[in-house]
Amino acid sequence: GADPSYKLIKLTAKSLPVKVRFAADPPAGYKLLIDGVKTEPAKVTVIGPEALLEDAFNAETSLIDLSENITTVTKKIPLESVAGTHLTGEPYLVEVTVPIQKIETEAKPA
After folding, report:
1. Can the peptide bond before residue 41 be classed as cis, meaning omega within 30 degrees of 0?
2. How far apart (Å, rounded) are the C-alpha atoms in residues 61 and 68?
3. Quick count: other Cβ atoms within 10 Å of Cβ 58?
4. Alpha helices in the chain (DSSP H)
5. DSSP state of 68
6. Mean pLDDT of residues grouped by 10 in the chain (110 residues)?
7. 40 vs 107: CA distance, rounded Å
8. What share of the chain is helix, strand, coil (3-state, %, to 5)?
9. How many other C-beta atoms can be found within 10 angstroms of the C-beta atom of residue 42?
10. Residues paired with 28 in a beta bridge
């Protein structure tokens, strides 16, 4: 029958959505609006071994630290891994827009 090892070497291209990963939350009193996070491009085409990309559902960015951010921020973030495998070679940068909002605290009646 067919040799299964050929799948490891056979390269394929797959369009994957970018998944943004966060290391730290914004400072106290601020929140990340996770539904508003946008990446440009929203999808990337990854070329790699067919066996690896079969299980790939997204391309993950490296962790973004928001511990210093109190307003919406746009950062250029490298893609780090696909299907748990670290990407090698030139880092591919995506532009990530992260909406951060002040948490409105309700005024307490005197």
Report:
1. yes
2. 19
3. 17
4. 6-9, 50-53
5. T
6. 69 95 95 97 91 91 96 96 85 95 83
7. 38
8. 10, 45, 45
9. 9
10. none
